[in-house]
Automatic annotation (TrEMBL):
It comes from Paracoccus nototheniae. Belongs to the polypeptide deformylase family. InterPro entries: Peptide_deformylase, Peptide_deformylase_sf. It comes from the Bacteria. This is Peptide deformylase. It holds the Pfam family Pep_deformylase.
Length: 421
């Protein structure tokens, strides 16, 4: 029977990783304990390289195994490195399935001292070279996990298996996406990496739709999406959300990655369905067309807690605009549900339309995010709404969304006129 090691690799969230490193000495009890534990771990895992801090011992030593040979290296260093390249979708023992793109040397020279006092000089290539650099990051870099984002922390901390699986699928899809300029990329590829952080969502016909941050897809890159996300936090509930424009697809991804119980409704036409499938988000999505009849008051179909529209959509200038907007109002939950219309700038046409349909309309004018109209079926309790946004932002580890959620609200009195609430 194989003996299982009593120790395991720590997670990046473990506070023991912040302890100050001590120099390794062959006659030191902590160093000897570290070497024994590293032996056990490598015997169970096969070829690899592990540093002592990864098992909770702040000692500057590591062990590497190749075949039957295990080498302990005290006070290791990498004095020479070469053949640098971007290591795409890299994972590490301490961060588990979390992937990132990082520059690594494909060949390194590892030096240090053997416990017998003899010098160690090892040439490492490929995977072993990457493991050595990860180990030295842990030993030498006090900010070795500064690339970890709130998205990663929420993923690891979550006790909801559905949310964890969703976060892992999104992270994997974004980091395994082909890069712009790679040879042989099909024209209809749903996700394309533009650089280490930005991934482009493409529609099913191959047209650019939106941008995602591969490191933190829960926080939109686009200023309008980010402002809109904060505003949605003011809603009493976010179980049923409808997004009517494909250009807000990044907002949809954000909502789906942070709210496990949400159902996202979207139109069939123009929606980047293949991109959502690639990120394994389509199971939480439902097709709901603009012209679908709104749910009956006592019917089985749910009301929408929020509806997001784009002011540039053609239907808003058509002859059916008023009738379709009334239909969306009836679709909206009357108990604090919010309709958000995102515009590049103030629009008298949109203001007149909303005031003809909704009894309460607010507006936020911002240089980066444009003009956002917020429409309600009844007058909102703003202090309570802003308190909800504050609470949810803090619960999700997103204090930066408090200002987008609460700042700049004005009551639209009539077209072109605003006053403080």
């Amino acid at each position: 029977m194989t003996r299982m090691p009593a120790h395991r690799i720590l997670s990046f969230t473990d506070p023991r990783l912040g302890m100050r490193m001590a120099e390794a000495r062959a006659d030191d009890m902590a160093t000897r304990a570290a070497m024994q534990i590293l032996d056990d771990l490598l015997a169970a895992t096969g070829d690899g390289l592990i540093a002592a801090p990864a098992i909770g011992l702040p000692v500057r030593c590591l062990a590497l195994r190749r075949g039957a040979e295990v080498i302990h290296v005290l006070n290791p260093a990498i004095p020479a490195a070469g053949d640098f390249a971007l290591n795409r979708a890299e994972t590490s023992p301490l961060t588990g399935p979390i992937r990132r793109h990082v520059w690594r040397a494909r060949q390194v020279t590892l030096t240090g001292t053997h416990p017998t006092g003899l010098p160690v000089h090892e040439l490492l290539e490929g995977r072993m070279a990457v493991l050595a650099q990860q180990a030295l990051d842990l030993l030498d870099n006090r900010a070795g996990f500064d690339w970890i984002t709130p998205f990663h922390r929420a993923w690891v901390a979550s006790s909801d298996p559905a949310l964890r699986a969703r976060a892992e699928a999104v992270n994997r899809a974004l980091h395994l996406a082909p890069w712009q300029g790679d040879p042989g990329i099909p024209a209809d590829t749903p996700l394309v990496a533009l650089d280490r952080r930005q991934v482009q969502i493409r529609g099913d016909a191959g047209q650019p739709v939106a941008l995602l941050d591969a490191g933190d897809p829960a926080l939109p890159i686009d200023a309008t999406d980010r402002r809109c996300l904060g505003i949605l936090f003011t809603a009493p509930a976010l179980r049923q959300v409808m997004i009517l424009s494909r250009h807000r697809a990044a907002l949809a991804v954000s909502l789906l990655t942070i709210l496990p119980g949400i159902t996202l409704h979207h139109p069939a036409s123009g929606w980047p369905q293949r991109a959502m499938e690639r990120m394994q988000l389509s199971a939480a999505c439902r097709v709901t067309a603009l012209r679908d009849p709104p749910p009956l008051p006592d019917g089985p179909d749910p009301k929408m807690d929020a509806i997001v529209m784009d002011g540039a959509d053609d239907w808003l200038e058509g002859p059916e605009a008023a009738a379709l907007m009334r239909q969306q109002a009836r679709r909206l939950n009357g108990n604090g549900g919010i309709a958000v219309i995102c515009c590049a700038s103030a629009s008298a046409m949109i203001e007149d339309l909303l005031q003809a349909v909704f009894p309460s309309v607010h507006v936020i004018d911002e240089r980066q995010a444009g003009t956002l109209y917020l429409a309600f079926r009844s007058r909102p309790d703003l202090p309570a709404a802003h308190a909800r946004a504050l609470r949810l932002s803090n619960q999700l580890g997103r204090p930066g969304l408090v200002q987008p959620a609460t700042g700049g609200w004005r009551i639209l009195t009539k077209s072109g006129e605003r006053r403080a609430p």
